[in-house]
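Sequence in, structure out. Go.
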Amino acid sequence: MRFTLFKNTFLILLLLGFSCGSGDKGNQIPFSEENTEESEARSSKSEAGSIDKDDTIVMGAEQFDTYSGLLRNKTVGVVANQTSVISAEQQSIHLVDFLVSKKIDLKKVFAPEHGFRGTADAGELIKDGMDVSTGLPIISLYGKNKKPSQQQLSGLEVMIFDIQDVGARFYTYISTLHYVMEACAEAGIPLIIMDRPNPNGHYIDGPILEIQHKSFVGMHPVPVVHGMTIGEYAQMINGQGWLENKKQCEIKVIKMLNYDHQTAYSLPVKPSPNLPNDTAINLYPSLCFFEGTVVSAGRGTNTQFQVFGAPSLPAEFFPYTFTPQANEGAKHPKFKGEQCNGLDLRNTKKMNKLNLEWLIEAYVGYGKKKEFFNDFFTNLAGTTKLQEQIEKGYTYPEIRATWLRDLDAYDAMRKKYLLYK
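Output:
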């Protein structure tokens, strides 16, 4: 019945379009699943010849024919950063520049942690500004303004979210996604999510966040490695009622082509200054725990999140040395100018689960155990239990065994929202 009504409405509008000639057609396109089915089919057919020959992942943002009808004759805002690039007309181009070239009426750019160009330190205050290339205003979604205000959304009819995630709960882009969805739900603005691969999407692992430890580095009761794309995660936020007062954000996920959760993917652009390569991205979920300790995870070097160390770790057990210095993304690194003893993990095989052995070894080797953890560790872990288990001498297998029941329950819930195998 709904489909028949839609078909009849579409035919009437089509006839009106022919009779009215150059009339405004933008309002004829409601923001709904049905009205992009035909364009998705056309996109699939037009790509069909190349799909048989080429299994290259096609990003959501690269499928302009699929979503252009949702943007035409609309005022548009976009949440983007340096990772919002696409291959278009045989060259790499930023999504903002691409949409402007296609005469989409972009009004505002919203930027997450690290800024629009992605060069700011973790936790650094980002100020509002202007994009030199397009002249568009840039509104920071970090610091005190993590959630777009209704005033900032004023005048917008559609929002786009296109940011590369790395699949870890404490990577703050999914927190920005939450707040953007919440603000859009309050304003009645639909949100188009341009999906991108999750480079750590091939597994789930870690303790589930306990809601009393909610923070910007962990907003939802999910494990450290959540195993979802941004589009899937947005569906889960809606489906689980995690927005304030269980609001629902109207979303449209532009799915990727040629992707599943076992697809290897090498990011063409650094997702943030301290994740410079595939190895760092793969080790990040395990090594980020060191950010909640006295140990350095390599910030201030060119091997960030591929090494760890501290001056007081014993050199006989931690023979690799490095000396942090100020660099892009780490203006004031831990142990700046001091030689650190640690381990070089650059030759580690691809991770399929978290590794806590390195954290436990560093804790055991550190002389002043009461000083090893700081308050930030609980925010990263999402629970007080992990620190307590390490302090009590639990082994990694013993710790991981305490996660398994919760991980099974999470996985069953997660499967309801998956868009890819």
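Check: The chain has a mean pLDDT of 87. Residues 2-20 form the longest helix (19 residues).
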